[in-house]
C-alpha cells in the first residue's frame, strides 16, 4: 500500500514537471500574443540570436544576447521572458526567480508572465502558487489549442500535488472527453483523492489500455491498486519530509545560499525524493561553491535519472556531459604544427613550419572553480622548416615553463606568466607576460543540429621583459559549421572568412594584417557515458591576402592541432 502511494506521488511530480516543461518551451519560442511593445531592430536582432543559441544549446551565448537585448529595451515583456527561460535552462534558479518576480510586478495581468511564474513555482514545488498562476493564465490568455491544453495539464498537476482534487477537476473539465491516457490517469488520481474509488478504478483501467509509455501504464496500475484496497489507507498521510527538503533547497537557492541549498538537496535525495532536474540544479549549486567531485556525481545522477524520465532533449544532456568533462579535467597536452604562423618566430622569416608541444596541469581544488581556471604548463617548440633559409632543427628549440589564470567565470580573459629557457643554441632566456581575451560561439559540437553559425574572436598582447619586445596578435573568424554524419557524427567542417593581424615593435614592418578564406576539419573524440568529447584533432587551412605590405600578412596558413 505504501509503495503504491509513493509511486503515485513520484508520478505526479514527473507529470507536473513535464507539463510545465511544455509550457516553458512554448513560451520560450513564441512571443506573447498580448505583447504591446514591438522590439526595436537592434533588440530584435539580439533576441533572434539568443533564440538560435538556445536551439543550438549554447546557453552562455544565449544569456549574453538576451542580456544585451533587455539592456537596449528594458521595458520589454518578451525579452524579460526570454531571459527567464535562459536562466532556467542554465540552472540559475535565483536569477530566473528574481527576473520573473520583477515581471509580475511590471506586468501583473500578463498571461504569459503568470504562466512562466507558475512554471517556476511548480519546479520549486510551491504548488499552491502554481495553481493560482496557471488558473489566471488560462482565464486571461489568448493561447493556441496546444498551449491551452498544456496549461490545463500543468494546472491539474499542481492541484493534485497540493491535494486539491476539486481544483484539478476544474482544470481538467474541458479535456475530460479526450480519449488519452494523459488525461485519464489524471482524472483517476483526482477521483481517488476525492474518495470516488469506482471512478478511479474505471479511469485507471482505461488509461492502462490507452497508455503509450511505461510511465503511464505504471501510474495507472498504481492508482488502480491503491483504489482496490479494502481498507482506508489510501487517505493516510504520506511522509513528505524528503519533498519538503527539496522545497527548502530551492528557497535557499533564491537567497544565494548554495552551501545550505546543497545540504537540503542531499537530505531530500537521501529520503528518496528527487528527479533528473533536481539533481542537475544541485549539481550547479555544488559547482558554484567549488565542490567539483560532488557536482560531477550529481550531474551523473541527473543523467541516470533521465534514462527513465526523458525530461531532457539530446542537446541538454550533452550540455550536462560537457559540464562533467570540464569539472573532471585535471591535465592535458596540446600538439600543434603550424605552417607560416609562428608567433614569436625569428625576425624576418616567412614560410615557417614550427611544431610545438605543451603539457599542462590543473591543481586540485584551485585548478577549476566555477569557470575560473588555474594551470601550470611546460612547453617546447622549434623550427622544422624556414623558407628564408635560416637555421632549423635542434638549435631553434625553445623551452618555457609558466602559469596561467582565467579569473572571470563568464569571460575568457587569461593572464599568463612564463619563463623562457635555453634548449637549443639559438633559443633565448627571458620572462614573457601575456594577456589574452577571446570570445566565440558555435565552436563546440552540437548533437541535434546538422549545421550552425560559428565565430571566434581572439586578441593577445605579449611582452618580453628583457628584450623589450612586445607583440599584439589578433584573429577573427566567421563562418558556418556542418556535421558530416555520413562519415562520423563527431566530424565537422567549418568554412569561414578570417582576418588576422599583429603588431611587432621589432619588425621592420611593424603592423601586418591579412584576410581571406579558410576551412577547418575537426574530429571530436574521447567521450564517455557521462562526459562529452574531451579531445579533438583539427586541421585548418587559410589563404590570406595582404591588407598591409608586410610579407608575413599574406600567403598560405596551415595548422594541425591535437587537443588532448
Characterize this entry briefly.
This protein is α+β, with helices and mostly antiparallel strands and 564 residues long.
Q: Can you offer a commentary on this structure?
A:
The structure is a single chain. The chain is built from 17 helices and 15 strands. α1 runs antiparallel to α6 (about 110-125), α5 packs antiparallel against α6 and α10 (about 180-195) runs parallel beside α12 (about 215-225). It folds into four domains: about 1-15 and about 125-240, Serine Threonine Protein Phosphatase 5, Tetratricopeptide repeat; about 35-110, Serine Threonine Protein Phosphatase 5, Tetratricopeptide repeat (Alpha Horseshoe), CATH 1.25.40; about 240-325, Tetratricopeptide repeat domain (Serine Threonine Protein Phosphatase 5, Tetratricopeptide repeat, Alpha Horseshoe), CATH 1.25.40; about 330-564, Lipocalin, CATH 2.40.128. It has a twelve-stranded antiparallel β-barrel with strand order 1-3-5-7-8-9-10-11-12-13-14-15. Strands 2-6 form a two-stranded antiparallel ribbon. It has about 575 residues and is α+β, with helices and mostly antiparallel strands. The model is unreliable at about 30-35 and about 340-350 (pLDDT under 50). About 40% of the residues are buried. The chain is about 45% helix and about 25% strand. β12 (about 490-505) and β13 form a beta hairpin. This is Bacteriophage N4 adsorption protein A C-terminal domain-containing protein. InterPro entries: NfrA_C, TPR-like_helical_dom_sf. Keywords: Signal.
